[in-house]
Structure formats: structure tokens, C-alpha cells
Amino acid sequence: MDSRLPPDLREGVRDTLPLLLGIVPFALVAGVAGVEAGLSPLQTVGLSVVVFAGASQLAAIELLGQDAALGVVVLTVVVINLRMLMYSASIAPYFRDLSARVRAGCAYVLTDQAYALALARYAGERDSDRGSTTRRPYYYLGVALTLWIVWQAGTIVGVVFGAAVPDGWRLGFAVPLVFLALLVPAVSDAPSLAAALVAAAVAVAGAGLPFNAGLIVGAVVGVVTGIAVDEWGIRGASGSGGGGSSDGSAETDRTGGH
Amino acid sequence: MATSYGPLSVWAVIVAGGLATFAIRLSFIHLFGRVDKVPPWLERALVYVPAAVLAALVAPDFAPESATLAALVSPEIVGGVAAVAAAWRTEDVLWTVAAGMAGLHLARFLL
């Protein structure tokens, strides 16, 4: 790699390479699925460039393929990407000294992986007190831009490939399979299992309803179920609830701003 | 399952979904200093969003067409079970998709 690039940027690129094994097939599916659902190649790639968030892209493709109400498609994309609020809040302190334009660019390429890698690194840097603020976005951008380029390239390859493959291969089936690949790790404890089971049951029961109400109602009832089971579980386990669930440890200590 | 929406509708979804997603990403990065924390109730709800939404999205694709035993061994369900097993073992998209496609086609061949 070009040694004139900032070292932090190169390290970001390097640390991203192992992740690409998981990203590439996902991107290929996004391309194939778009074509299978009747989107044009340009629309499929446009979706990858404009939205740039895999699970929500596949959801949009799946719902467009079913002729779901357009508002429901957008709402589903929003709900799936709402988790990025947490990333945005968590990584914001490290970007606060940057110009508005650079911050906007950093926000556009914010993904699960870029957030996870950059936050791990920044948190470590703060501990060893060696980070200089001016260089901070380079590592993040090394990760995020690598992911962006590979995601777009993978989508394009998927579009070309998907258009050439016979229907008998059933490549469209890869979409629910990717959802399963994301769903299984998301079900990590009793409340999330309850959330998933209830959401699935309601969605199946409501599958024939107009405007994909089954999906929306299922997701909402599932989230409420997860919270309820969490609440009940904490009370059942420790009597007087020690303030929040066990996975609150990622919470960083933020000061200032008031 | 090809969409019957025209290009304008599809592009509208792409642009609206993209703008909303960008707004979510930018929210705190832009506002930091004025608002510095996701409200606890929202953070708590967000924990269960992936499990609930993904399950609601995926379940109708695998729901049997009738409540008979025969309907439970469709190629799709065989593929889905193989994918869940692979996802559980590997937590890897590549292996999950490969196992699911293999299960689907094997079941179509055998059933």
C-alpha cells in the first residue's frame, strides 16, 4: 500500500481485511436480490450507494418484491437502522473537533463494523494517552471507506451475476438466509429470544394483512415483549433491580455538553 | 416476486430510506454538545429491535402453507434449518448462506 497514506488509515484498511470474508457474500446477495426483486441494475447499485446499510437494503428489496406499501418499506429501513443512533452517540465525542463537512462524511459511512473497530481503537488510545486529536478520523475512515468500496463492488458483481444465473438456482432464497445469519447472533438471551419468537408469530399470523401490518405489528410487539421479559427477569433474579441490564458495560463515561 | 412498482416509486424509496438513514447516522455526531446521550428508554428498546424486526421479516418466508406434518418438510424449511444451524455454529454470513442454499437444493432433489 502507498506509504504516503497516513499510517492510521493504512492500519484501518488492514484491520478491515478479515471482515471482508463476511461482507463480500452479503454484498453479492444485495446485488443478486435487487435484480431478482425486479429492481434495475442502476436502482440496485443506487440503493447500495444511497442507503449503504446491508440488512435494511435487503429488507427494502424483499418488501418491494412483495409490493408492500412504500411507506412501510421506508419505515422498515428506518427501524432496522435505528441502532445507528447508539453508534452515533457513542462515537460522537471522537469527531467533535472536526469540521461539519468531515463529520457529515464520517456519518455517511458509519456502519456496525466501522463503529466497532474504531471505538475499540479510540478507547484503547485514550487509555494509553497517545492519540493526537487531529489524526483521529484516519483509522475510522480506513475501515469505513474500505467497507464502502468493497460493498459497492460486491453489489455490482452481484447484479451482473444475478442477471446471468438461471431462476432454478433460487438465488433469491439467499435473502431470508442472510436475515437468519443476522438473527441468530441477535438472539443472545431470554428477552431477545422472546422478542424474536413473539415477533415471528405475530408476523406469520398477520401475513395476509394489508400494508404489511403483520411485519410492523410483529416488530413492535416483539420489542415490547423483549423489554417486558427483561424487566420481569431482573425482578425475578435480583429482587430490586440493580439499574439496567447486564450489557450496559459498553456505556462510555461522557462529560460536558450541558 | 418481482415488484410492480415503477422506477419513480422505487427511487423514491431509495432516496427517502437513504436520507432517513443518513439523518440517523449524523444525529449525535452533528448534535454533540447539545444532546449527548440516547435517552435510556430508547436505548433499552433498541436492544431488542434487531431480534424482533429480523424475526418478523424472515418468519413469513418459512411459514408452512398448511398445518400438516407434510408441509413442515418443504425445501425452504430444510434450507432454513440448515442455515440456522450454520449461523449458530459459525455466526458467519458466508457459511449460513452456503448451508441454507445446500439444504434447499438437496431437499428439492430428494423430496
TrEMBL record, chain A:
Residue numbers spanned by region Disordered: 238-258
Cell compartments where the protein resides: Cell membrane
Instruction: Write down any Gene Ontology CC term.
Output: plasma membrane
Give UniProt keywords alphabetically.
Answer: Cell membrane, Membrane, Transmembrane, Transmembrane helix, Transport
Q: How does it sit in the membrane?
A: Multi-pass membrane protein
TM stretches of this protein:
20-39, 70-95, 138-163, 169-188, 195-228
Q: Return the InterPro entries for the record.
A: Brnchd-chn_aa_trnsp_permease (IPR011606)
**What family name appears in the similarity comment?**
Belongs to the AzlC family.
What name does UniProt use for this protein? AzlC family ABC transporter permease
Output the lineage of the source organism.
Archaea, Methanobacteriati, Methanobacteriota, Stenosarchaea group, Halobacteria
Automatic annotation (TrEMBL), chain B:
Entry superkingdom: Archaea
Listed name of the protein: AzlD domain-containing protein
The cross-references to InterPro entries, in alphabetical order and at most eight, read:
Brnchd-chn_aa_trnsp_AzlD (IPR008407)
Alphabetically ordered keywords of this record: Membrane, Transmembrane, Transmembrane helix
| TM stretches of this protein | 12-33, 45-63, 69-88, 93-110
Q: What is the lineage of its organism?
A: Archaea, Methanobacteriati, Methanobacteriota, Stenosarchaea group, Halobacteria
Query: Could you tell me which species this protein originates from?
Result: Halobaculum roseum
Q: Where do the coiled-coil regions begin and end?
A: none
